[in-house]
Amino acid sequence: MNNVDPYRVRVSAAVLRPGDELLVVRESRLALAVINLPGGTPQLGETLERAVVREVLEETGYDVAPAEIAFVAERRSDRYSPSVLEICFYARIVSETRRDPAPGDGLQAVEWFPLDHPDVRHHLPHASFFAMTKRGRYIDQSSEAGTLTS
Predict the structure, then answer these.
(1) For 21-35, 54-68, 92-106, 123-137, which range has the lowest pLDDT when averaged over its residues?
(2) Dmax of the chain from CA atoms?
(3) Residue 139 phi/psi, 5° resolution?
(4) Residue 148: which of 90, 93, 89, 91 has the closest Cα?
(5) Three-state SS for 93?
(6) What pTM did the predictor assign?
(7) Where would I find the H helices in 47-140?
(8) Which domains does the chain possess?
(9) Using CA atoms, how far apart are residues 22 and 115, in angstroms rounded to an integer?
(10) Please, are residues 142 and 92 in contact by the beta-carbon 8 Å criterion?
């Protein structure tokens, strides 16, 4: 009998802009409304970095460049199977031109939320880490000038 807990790998991006705002996606998962970091599952043969670029572009329309890993988290739940191993990269937007996101399962909206927003604290408890450290912040020049819109 095999008691090995299967893992699903998920990549995500922590995209920050001045004012401690975080790029998030509103999604419907298992009939629940959630806020999540943009990301998803790497395709077979795809590097983690390439997967995060593709997933963020598909979900948000932003072209990003991943940098260092922000965190690695394991999520185990009786409601979800398999368990999820999430690898989150800090990322910066590399183009002022935003494409329309690809229509996706459950994707409702793309928004910039303050890190201290109650919905961010509730759905993304690890986001408080982004506010506590300046290390790893990769904010592009265009977002500093306030030229990007959500």
Answers:
(1) 123-137
(2) 58
(3) -110, 130
(4) 93
(5) strand
(6) 0.78
(7) 48-60, 118-123, 128-132
(8) 7-139 (3.90.79.10)
(9) 6
(10) no
Token output for 147? 């030229």
Question: Residue 65: which of 131, 143, 126, 125 has the closest Cα?
Answer: 143
* Length of the chain, in residues: 150
Cβ-count burial 91-104 (b if 16+ within 10 Å, e if not): bbbeeeebeebeee
The burial class, CB within 10 Å (0-12 / 13-18 / 19+), for 39 is buried
- Residue corresponding to tokens 């922590």: 14
Q: What's the pLDDT tens digit per position in 109-131?
A: 899 999 888 888 888 877 767 76
How far apart (Å, rounded) are the C-alpha atoms in residues 46 and 129? 28
